[in-house]
Every structure is written in C-alpha cells, then in structure tokens.
TrEMBL record:
UniProt xrefs under InterPro entries: Aminotransferase_I/II_large (IPR004839), Ethylene_sulfur-biosynth (IPR050478), NHTrfase_class1_PyrdxlP-BS (IPR004838), PyrdxlP-dep_Trfase (IPR015424), PyrdxlP-dep_Trfase_major (IPR015421), PyrdxlP-dep_Trfase_small (IPR015422)
Cofactor(s) demanded: pyridoxal 5'-phosphate
Top-level taxonomic group: Eukaryota
EC numbers for this chain: 4.4.1.14
Matches recorded under Pfam families: Aminotran_1_2
Signal sequence, renumbered to the chain: none
PANTHER family in the record: 1-AMINOCYCLOPROPANE-1-CARBOXYLATE SYNTHASE 2, BIFUNCTIONAL ASPARTATE AMINOTRANSFERASE AND GLUTAMATE/ASPARTATE-PREPHENATE AMINOTRANSFERASE-RELATED
Protein name, per record: 1-aminocyclopropane-1-carboxylate synthase
Amino acid sequence: MGSLKKNGGVSGAILSRIATNDQHGENSEYFDGWKSYDKDPFHFSRNPHGVIQMGLAENQLCLDLIKNWIKENPKASICTAEGVHQFSDIANFQDYHGLKEFREAIVKFMGKARGGRVTFDPERVVMSGGATGANETIMFCLADPGDVFLVPSPYYAAFDRDLRWRTGVETIPVHCYSSNNFKLTVEAVEWAYNKAQESNKKVKGLILTNPSNPLGTMLDKDTLENLVRFVTRNNIHLVVDEIYAATVFAGETFVSVAEVVNNADSSEVNVDLIHIVYSLSKDMGLPGFRVGIVYSYNDSVVSCARKMSSFGLVSSQTQLMLASMLSDDRFVENFLIESSRRLGIRHGVFTLGLKKTGITCLTSSAGLFVWMDLRHLLRDRNSFESEIELWRIIINKVKLNVSPGSSFHCTEPGWFRVCFANMDDDTLHVALQRIQDFVSKNNNKIVEKTSDSDQIIQNNNAKKQKWRQGNLRLSFRRLYEDGLSSPGIMSPHSPLLKA
Ligand SMILES: Cc1ncc(COP(=O)(O)O)c(C=O)c1O
C-alpha cells in the first residue's frame, strides 16, 4: 500500500490566503479561558469545583416559555403527528426570499421587540445564518477589500472575524473611555473618520451595536440622530447591529435606528445608507436556530443581500415553526415582558452580590452581561499584562471563565465582561460565592483587627477600604507568584462563535 503524502498543512502554499491567515482569531490567547472550561466544566453534582462558564452571552432565562409553547402547538413542527402533513412542502422549500409567513411574523416581532414604536416591511427582510452571517453579508454588499468600517470600542470580539476575515474589509476602532462611562460621541467618530481619511483610507461606514456588547449600555436618541446626520453628510453607511434590542431590563427606552429613520427629516437623512442587523439569538435565546436578518432601507442592498443569502438561509422547518410562534401575539407580548423582568432580576442579584464584595460594574440597562471594573486589583493599573495575569487567576483559581476587556479592544486595562444569563440561579450563586470567598479571605483579616468595637469600624471605614484593596492586591499577587499553568487541550468549539 502506497503511503499518503501530506502536503503543506494549514500553512502550506496549496491553501488560499483566507484559509491561511489568522483573521479568524482562533489562535488568540483568549481561547485559554474556553479551553479551561471545556477541560473542567462546572456541574452542580458531578463537578462542583469545575469552571463556571461566564464568557457566553446566551439567554437561557426564558427557554421554559418557549418549550411550553412548542408543547401546546405541535402543529407548528413538521416532525410531529399534527404537523407532518406539511412535511413534503416544507422539506422541499428553498426560495431565498423565505416563507412569506415567516417574514411577516419576524417583522411583527422586530416591531414588538422595539416597544411597538416602529414597523418593518417584510419585503426588506433578508435571511442569514445568525447575525454573524448578516454582518458579513452587509460588509460584502457595502465594502471592497481594503475599505474601512469604523467600530466604536470596546466592541464585540468576533467582529474582527465577521466583518473582516473573508471580506478583506478593514476596521478602525473609535475609542471610548471610562471617564465618560464609555459613551460614544459624534466627536469621537468624526475624529476617527478624519484620521482615517488623512491616512488615505477609504471609509465606507460606521457599525454600531446598540444595545452594546460588551457594555450593556444604549445610545440615546440625540446621539443616534446625530450619527445618522453624520453618515448622511459624509455619504458613508451606518450599520446598526440591534441583536440585543429586547434585552432591555431597566431605565431608559431603547431607541432603534428604525425610529430615527421613520421620524427623520428627509433632507437630513439618506435612508439608503441605513441598515439593521438582527437575530433571534439573544432576544429569544435561540442561537442554535441561526436566524439572522439583514434589514436594509436601500433597495439595491436588499436585492444583492438576498442573492447572497443563498449561502446562509434559515432552514424552512425553523421558518415554519417561528412563523407560527412569532405571530402568536399573546405569547410574544408575554415573552418579551417576562424575559426583561427575569433579566432585570438576574442583573440585580448579580450586581448586588458583586457590590457586597466591593466590586462595581458600569451602569447598564440591557444585555446579558455586565462590564465589571477590577482596575483596583491590577498589579499595575496601566498594563494589559496585569489584566491578563488577573484574568488567568480568575479562570484557574476562582474558576470562572470571564472575558478580559482587551479581547473587546478596550483601551483601559482592568475591565471584564461577565455573562449572567447563561446559567440557572444555583450556578449563579456558586459563582457569586466563589467571588465572595475569594474576597473575604482578605476581609477576615480586617475584621479581626477591628472587631474590638463597631465604632472603630465605622470610624475607620475609609481606612478599611484601603486595607481591603491592599490585601486583595496582595492576595492576587500571591496567586500570580504561585505560577499558573495554562490548560493544554484544544477546544472543539469556536468561542468567538458563541461569544
Ligand atoms: C453584537 C453581536 N453581533 C452578532 C453576534 C452573533 O450572533 P448570532 O449568534 O446570531 O450569529 C453576537 C453574539 O454574541 C453579538 O454579540
């Protein structure tokens, strides 16, 4: 038997430039957290000391409502006795426009997810494989290799892959800072735009996530209107990824760019430049269904994106079931209210638990995560190396897989994104307990020293805070010095896909 000749491997010259470049991001050190989790995943009874996954922006809080609906509506699935009569039609359906009833139901849902203040046209709905596919498709429609999209940072880590890897599009960050709560300003966008122009870059657009991943904050109406005017003035595109539209649980009302478009003065807004990316992965907690939407106000973009959608259609079985579920008004209205109520409670429990340990987060009102401030725990407040050191301790010693701010291109070390909606209450409490235990090891020393009198404790509150931070830092330092080993197995999953 002749031997098989292996030629080249991934870096071999026989593969394409796309196949052999690193833009997919999977060789990054940020994978270590996922590897740790995969090697040693937490389970309440089977592996209670394992790593808890807090790096996954999944919404698992309302899956019971969806399961109940499926049980009560067996006709909506074609693989049931009640639904099988539609099997042949649906199994054969492959029109890239999608089922009419699906498009009608999804635009109705998109309107409701935005508080019923806007309506969408089913003829403008283009399907894709999740928002991942939608973001890539819109890049293919709007930009050529080498063209630039501006992206406010910190931003969703997988944008590096989704917007750039296969399209050849480049991104330039618009940096936002903690000094104004990471708020995006038109001035910052303008500055980045001018800088890019000065370096002879062809800027084709600006892409936002609203509500923001990883911040959980929302753009106010004025800023959004000003950004719409800005892109119109400069004749560049605005893509708004609104995948977290219905995860709002507190405070302000979410303002979709669709609202701005609907109410805009046509002399100030060129709607041909406005495009929305959406998906059911977060608002309904269905990332496995791969339901993504490109919604463009530009007819040529709709037409081109639809042709491209052949590469990433939503399965017709999924379309059929969702058409039925999403046109059930009572179910959808109850789901949206209940989902934001549960997210609000979860967020409240988690942030309060953190606060008790002296840890604060950026104030947020949406999303499936918090943006946690651990700057006071860094060995060196100005160094990203310190951030990575602290991150490795959190993974390997505290056994929580959280995501460091640098993976979101944050320019200030010490911020971490922590997901709170991908687990049950009990697991969340274990996670909080681990953080509290870790911190209280240091607090105990303070309590011993000050237990003589409550009065002394009160009088020394300021000192105590200093002590605590000092001790915490010391304790982390001890751990740094323990020498942390990086786990060795390769993850079968793409963390970026799930992030
Ligand atoms: C801002 C943003 N866009 C897109 C995606 C990808 O979503 P999907 O699962 O629908 O592809 C995510 C997932 O985390 C996200 O946070």
